[in-house]
């Protein structure tokens, strides 16, 4: 919570304290929050991480509405949802990540293979900026996250209303099959592990 949520909310609070006493600017002031694909998909191994990213998504939704109190175009709140991207912390995380998590997210491979498969931080940043330039409230940086986002969007703002709605329908048909597969893999992993060790560990 301290690393992922409190650092976000206190930074936003500090900016708003300055902005709310300053004269309004001709163009909106933008608040860009960073959540994660994990906000839409709970995987074993991310139990300390996922709830904080869900909290950031909820913060974006609530903050967007509350700031309408100051006018339609005074503030714009955005939230981006990157998945894995290449960084030092990603490779450090790989060293500590449970085997089951790697299997489910598709990162059970060598560093060289990961470097070919996973996008760079710069590439992800470019996609986020493109989404901002288009005026998106919620920004997914890959098709998988776009599906998950529209599967769980609820009353959150849509960008392409009809397209987002259709993606939500598609996701509702597709993601249940992935969830069943993930559940099956988790059970098998647990059975194999518990066969070796009587203690239940991830």
TrEMBL record:
Which Pfam families does the record associate with it? adh_short (PF00106)
- Database matches in InterPro entries: NAD(P)-bd_dom_sf (IPR036291), SDR_fam (IPR002347)
Listed A to Z, the keywords are: Membrane, Transmembrane, Transmembrane helix
**GO biological process entries:** 3-keto-sphinganine metabolic process; sphingolipid biosynthetic process
* Membrane-spanning parts: 159-178
| Gene Ontology cellular-component annotations | endoplasmic reticulum membrane
On the tree of life, the source organism's domain of life is Eukaryota
Q: Does the keyword Transmembrane helix apply?
A: yes
- The reply on keyword NADP is no
Supply one GO molecular-function term.
3-dehydrosphinganine reductase activity
Q: PANTHER family, per this entry?
A: 3-KETODIHYDROSPHINGOSINE REDUCTASE (PTHR43550)
Identification of the protein by name: Putative short-chain dehydrogenase
Which organism is this protein's natural source? Aspergillus nomiae NRRL (strain ATCC 15546 / NRRL 13137 / CBS 260.88 / M93)
